[in-house]
Design goal:
The structure holds two protein chains of two kinds. Chain A is built from 17 helices and 31 strands. The longest helix of chain A has 28 residues, at 540-567. In chain A, the strands form eight sheets. In chain A, strands 3-5-1-12-9-10-11 form a seven-stranded mixed sheet, sandwiched between helices. The radius of gyration of chain A is 27 Å and the shape is globular. In chain A, helix 9 (347-365) runs parallel beside helix 16, helix 12 packs parallel to helix 13 (540-567) and helix 15 (662-681) packs across helix 16. Chain A is 25% helix and 26% strand. In chain A, 59% of the residues are buried. Chain A is of the alpha+beta class. In chain A, helix 12 (503-515) links the parallel strand 20 and strand 21. Chain B has two domains: 3-77, Ubiquitin-like (UB roll) (Roll); 81-147, DNA polymerase, domain 1, CATH 1.10.150.120. In chain B, 34% of the residues lie in helices and 14% in strands. Chain B contains five helices and five strands; from the N terminus they run ββαβββαααα. Chain B has a five-stranded mixed sheet, sandwiched between helices. In chain B, strand 1 (3-7) and strand 2 (10-14) form a beta hairpin. In chain B, helix 2 packs across helix 5 (136-147). The chains are: A alpha+beta, B alpha+beta. At the A-B interface, helix 1 and helix 15 of A face helix 2, helix 3, helix 4 and helix 5 of B.
Chain lengths: 766, 149
């Protein structure tokens, strides 16, 4: 149960038995079902809304429009620009326009179809470059540029011996958490509401809901319901305000649970991007400069776009020493689906570009691509392109060395580490047998090895941990020690979201380690305790872990004070295995005896070191609190006739500082790599004229167990001197460099210049 | 429409079933058996895997009316302790939304093939999507459950 031990999830058995209650499983007697009327147009003026027919449908208890929003009809994580229900104009396909509550979910859906909305259809802005022009309609009052980030570092006009240029395009990825957006709002009969909800941050939901409902925060109480994955998709409001409005209007509990298709329009996505790069280097391979123009399509509303573009810009050069940089990052409004947070948060898009550029540079220099990376690898004490001097362990070269030295999969002959095999070879299955499923095309039986070439590719990436640019990052933990059934018991209470990552074990491990008590229970999260910030930015083990550590230390100190005063004992007491022990480990008193009926209850906030805003003209600042690094190697087979891909193996090395729960850390590295693989070779929300064409799991392809290869892992624990226990955030780095390594391997196998992800069959055959 | 069915060995009756209701809706909203999950409701993710007269099916693809007179076994009634324990111990559970469906599918595999190869595990579970784990620990779990037979 202590930190550093692999601890099994306390919620695991219930989840495996089907007993765990997710937000879509909530139910209470007398509840209604809510349905959402959504815009069929990406851009249109609302002329009129007629609710008569919908309201007369069987079972219908309420039909609400923008006129029924009790408070301010605008919300947003960073910019309040999004209406709860559209009033004058709809800005994306699927934007919420009206709500229905009915006795049966099908009644609600059918009534929603009867709502009459007259639209004046407008020409949508669907190209982010066009959105920048003066011809484009202004989609929001301040224009179409949501944020521009300029980074100017070093010389204005550096020159270099070798110059390589490239343009890259990144498709729109969906987080696709399996649990749909869902929740249950219960009116309290006194004008307030209790919302049971699966969210990444209870308190930011509460703050936004109080605004749109026109209620003081204490009248909007949130309780965490079971979360079926998140990955960024649950940072923004989806059905929260809608369910609360319907519940307050009808006086009855209201449940809303999205279908998968509705989920695709009910949350933001990973920004698609266009990235134009130029790298300059000396003949010895040392980087002289990086110039980049990064354009992200933020879609109709801002969500967290302003922070995503900051990341995309700050880390545009990759984890390399680069004395001169000129980066222009822009995120714009369009009438495409809104984009915001997804695992990797701006560092994913640019990693595809900077790693492709490094390979291109290596080829131009005639240098090994890994050697080139190691020669330029950031080290402790180096200055980043933002001017920040990077401290703590910066093992970029070491991570590359480690993935390089891992054994390659058994079969295949390689002409060097990034080489290619041009003659056909038959890959071997994991068990040594040739299996159809191990070949490109799988059981489609597309090849028996003919036209299959293998490539090996490398990539390294990094990103910030925690909030950046001066945002007040903190978490709150309450830790309570009492005696239950004759044994000491610790309860840990925070508002943090257990999204599947394993925060529930981390909190318990920290409390058990600090207090020396074996029975630790992590209470369900709710807004009765202070904010813990979001489960995002790979920050919770650091920040909420830090808060639990601080509160646990405070409890421990009080126990030891009590022991010393009660027993007039010497100093040097500790708590171990439910007992107070002396300096040599002999029991002084059992904790249960010492405490009796006493309860020790401490609440603490934890804040990491402060960060600062990027200078608007130069982008120079100590904008980030901690950096985390990972490297990947990919081995990929490509059927060059059909353009089919089989990722044979992924290997990764990552510094996690301190693995609090090693089995959970492994799960993050494997699962994060799978999401990286998805964007590299299959996952894309296809948007045409502002309309999503594949809003289902039939048409949006997610990696299955047949697509995802084994992951070799080397987990380093180098210890960050600034963080609790030396830990680093773990969750996002696996999703950053895994995809770029796969694309590098495809390039190595085929010799093609791949400039777009996901890589499609026709990118490899036409 | 009235639907009479046996779920986990117990007779269940639902009245006024709308013709379009799926077996998944019946299980979840009428019988309060929420272990079968509603992730895609299109037969792509396997999160609602159940046995229908002994055959592994996606409950979302079976109409409620089709369950009339049939025997259903859901995650709640599965004799799956060995598989369930293996998933927990192997670290194959993260958010857990896919887990009940994967447990039922793995249970079905191990009934048919007591000691599956990795390729057989991958093929049998190819209809179950997990977004959290990257599947490695799911394969570990099935190996573990097979080994503990």
């Amino acid at each position: 149960m202590r930190i550093g031990e692999s601890v099994l999830r306390p919620d695991g058995p219930a989840k495996a038995r089907g007993d765990f209650v997710y937000s879509s499983d909530l139910r209470v007697d007398g509840m209604l079902w809510g349905a959402t009327v959504r815009s069929p147009h990406p851009y249109a003026r609302i002329v009129s809304i007629d609710t008569m027919e919908a309201g007369a449908m069987p079972g219908v208890k309420a039909v609400l429009t923008h006129q029924d929003v009790p408070g301010r009809n605008l919300y947003g994580l960073e910019i309040e620009d999004q209406p709860v229900l559209a009033s004058e104009v709809v800005r994306y396909w699927g934007e919420a326009v009206a709500l229905v509550a009915a006795e049966h979910p099908e009644q609600a859906r059918r009534a929603a179809e009867k709502l009459r909305v007259e639209y004046e259809v407008l020409q949508p802005v669907t190209d982010p470059d066009y959105a920048l022009t003066s011809d484009a309609p202004r989609l929001h009052p301040d224009g179409n540029i949501t944020r521009r980030v300029k980074i100017r570092h070093g010389e204005a006009d550096p020159t270099a011996d070798i110059v390589v240029k490239g343009e890259y395009e990144i498709g729109m990825q969906d987080q696709a958490p399996l649990g749909p957006e869902s929740g249950l709002a219960i009116p309290d009969g006194e004008g307030g509401v209790d919302l049971h909800i699966a969210t990444q941050w209870l308190h930011i939901d509460q703050k936004q809901l109080a605004g749109v409902l026109g209620l003081p925060p204490e009248k909007v109480r949130l309780t965490m319901a079971g979360i079926g994955g998140a990955f960024g998709a649950r940072e923004d409001l989806s059905m929260q305000a809608h369910a609360c409005m319907l519940a307050l209007k009808t006086g009855r509990p209201v449940k809303i649970s999205y279908s998968r298709t509705e989920s695709f329009v009910g949350h933001v996505h990973r920004h698609p991007g266009r990235l134009i790069y130029e790298h300059g280097a000396n003949r010895d391979g040392r980087l002289v400069y990086v110039k980049a123009r990064i354009l992200l399509d933020g879609g109709a509303y801002a969500s967290s776009s302003t922070a995503v573009i900051a990341n995309a810009s700050c880390f545009a050069a990759g984890p390399y020493r680069c004395p001169n940089a000129n980066i222009d990052g822009m995120v714009v409004y369009t009438n495409n689906p809104p984009c915001g947070a997804m695992r990797g948060f701006g560092s994913v898009q640019n990693c595809y570009a900077h790693e492709a550029q490094m390979d291109k540079l290596a080829e131009a220099l005639g240098m090994d691509p890994v050697e080139l990376r190691m020669r330029n690898a950031l080290e402790t004490g180096d200055e980043m392109i933002t001017g920040q001097v990077i401290d703590g362990p910066v093992p970029v070269a070491e991570l590359l060395r480690r993935v390089l030295s891992m054994p390659l999969p058994a079969s295949g002959e390689f002409s060097g580490r990034a080489g290619r095999v041009l003659d056909g070879l038959v890959p071997q299955g994991e068990g040594g047998d040739v299996e159809l499923t191990s070949r490109p095309g799988g059981v489609s039986n597309a090849t028996h090895g003919e036209s299959v070439v293998r490539g090996v590719g490398y990539a390294v990436g990094f990103k910030n941990i925690g909030y950046s640019e001066g945002f007040d990052d903190y978490s709150t933990a309450r830790v309570r020690l009492s005696v239950a059934d004759g044994r000491p018991r610790v309860e840990v209470h925070t508002a943090s979201a257990e999204v599947g990552q394993g925060l529930v074990t981390v909190q318990a491990q920290i409390a058990a380690t600090e207090i020396g008590v074996t029975d630790v229970v992590v209470l369900n999260a709710d807004t009765r305790v202070g904010s813990s910030g979001s489960s995002s930015a790979s920050r919770q083990t650091y920040i909420t872990g830090g808060a639990v550590k601080a509160a646990s230390e405070a409890v421990r100190e009080r126990v030891l004070e009590l022991a010393q005063s009660e027993l007039r004992a010497a100093s040097g007491l500790r708590i171990e295995n439910d007992a107070v022990v002396d300096a040599v480990g002999n029991q002084v008193i059992a904790l249960a005896t010492l405490l009796g009926d006493a309860v020790i209850d401490e609440t603490r906030e934890f804040r990491p070191r402060r960060t600062h805003h990027l200078d608007p003209e130069t982008g120079q600042a100590n904008a980030h609190m901690q950096y985390a690094f990972a490297a990947h190697r990919a081995v990929v087979d490509v059927d060059t006739e059909l353009g089919l891909i089989k990722v044979v193996e992924l290997a990764t090395a990552q510094d996690v500082g301190k693995a609090i729960n090693p089995i959970a850390v492994q799960g993050q590295l494997e699962g994060g790599a799978a999401q990286g693989l998805g964007l590299a070779v299959m996952e894309e929300i296809q948007v045409k004229d502002g309309v999503i064409r594949n809003a289902s799991f039939t048409d949006y392809l997610l990696p299955t167990i047949l697509d995802m290869p084994p992951v070799r892992m080397d987990i380093l624990e180098l210890g960050d001197p600034n963080s609790p226990y030396g830990l680093k955030g773990v969750g996002e780095p696996p999703t950053i460099s895994s995809g770029p390594a796969i694309v590098a391997a495809i390039r190595a196998a085929t010799g093609r210049e791949i400039t777009r992800v996901p890589v499609r069959p026709h990118d490899l055959t036409l | 429409m009235r639907v009479s069915t046996t779920v986990n060995g117990t007779p269940h009756v639902a009245d006024d079933v709308w013709e379009g209701e799926s077996l998944l809706y019946l299980l979840r909203e009428r019988f309060a058996l929420f272990g079968s999950k509603n992730a895609c409701e299109q037969g792509e993710c396997g999160s609602c895997s159940v046995y229908l007269d002994g055959t592994l099916v996606c409950a979302c693809l079976v109409l409620g009316g089709q369950a009339n007179g049939r025997e259903i076994v859901t995650i709640e009634g599965l004799d799956g302790a060995k598989v369930q324990q293996a998933f927990v111990v192997a670290g194959a559970v993260q958010c857990g939304f896919c887990t009940p469906g994967l447990v039922v599918a793995a249970h079905d595999l191990l009934n048919r093939v007591p000691n599956p190869t990795d390729a057989q595990i991958r093929e049998a579970l190819a209809g179950n999507i997990c977004r959290c784990t990257g599947y490695a620990k799911i394969i570990d779990a099935v190996r573990l459950a097979a080994g503990s037979a």
